[in-house]
Amino acid sequence: MIKKITSSLFVVITLLSCKNENSKKDDKAIDKTEEKSEKAVNDSEEKNIASFSKPDLAAEVKNFITCKKASTTRNECRNSITKVVSQSFNIEEFVDKEKGYVVYDSIRPIIERSAKWENLGPIDENNLNKAVAHANDDGLALIVDTSQSYGHVVMVLPGEPKRSGSWGMALPKVLSLANHSPEKSFHDKTLSYALQKSDEVQVYLRK
């Protein structure tokens, strides 16, 4: 009788031991699966970050001037600003699926009908300060001459604004790719070098 009980206990203990071992193996397998999954997510995020880098603005200005000098039609190089803006902020609203980057005069119609954009109104110290703060927070701010269909478009750059005596306010540095006078393009000067002071020069922020 005692032998039978002892034998039964041995069987039970052996089964429990095997069950615990299998459970540990299952837990290890789950841990390894979770580690692989987490690593895959991290690798994907790192790949996305690595694939997105802002363009060299000095090089873009130089390339634009070179492009305009070599151009044979007025439509050439007119999408340079939309390309730089799109690549700088990893956005696609200025990209046509068939034609690629749209020409610069398509920017205003696009942003005025988009819920992603806010028109602050004409240039004044308050609106420019908001644009600079937005740019310093890695946001996108554009300034557009709305007085004509082909009005100039510039991108506000981060940094400290510089006081202008003629404008009576502090002005931000901007990226200006001037289609009519490409040799006057720049990325290291203030707004006054790109546009004349006017209520028709409007400030737009991408939310």
Tell me the CATH architecture of the largest domain. Answer: Alpha-Beta Complex
Helix content: 40-55%
Head-to-tail CA distance between termini = 83 Å
CATH homologous superfamily label of the largest domain = endopeptidase domain like (from Nostoc punctiforme)
Main sheet attributes: strand count, strand direction, barrel closure: 6 strands, antiparallel
Q: Name the average pLDDT.
A: 84
Number of helices: 5
Number of domains: 2
- Reading off the top of the CATH hierarchy, the class of the largest domain is best stated as Alpha Beta
Lateral arrangement of strands in the main beta sheet: 3-10-4-5-8-9
In short:
The chain is an alpha+beta fold. Helix content is 44%, strand content 19%. The protein folds into 2 domains: 51 residues; 150 residues, endopeptidase fold (from Nostoc punctiforme), CATH 3.90.1720.
Task: Please describe what this structure looks like.
The protein has 207 residues and is an alpha+beta fold. The protein is built from five helices and ten strands. It has a six-stranded antiparallel sheet with strand order 3-10-4-5-8-9. A hairpin with a 3-residue loop joins strand 1 (95-96) and strand 2. The termini are far apart.
What is the element layout, followed by pairings?
Blueprint: H1 2-51, H2 57-70, H3 80-89, E1 95-96, E2 100-101, H4 107-112, E3 117-122, H5 125-136, E4 141-145, E5 153-156, E6 162-164, E7 169-171, E8 173-176, E9 186-190, E10 201-206
Antiparallel strand pairs: 1-2, 3-10, 4-5, 4-10, 5-8, 6-7, 8-9
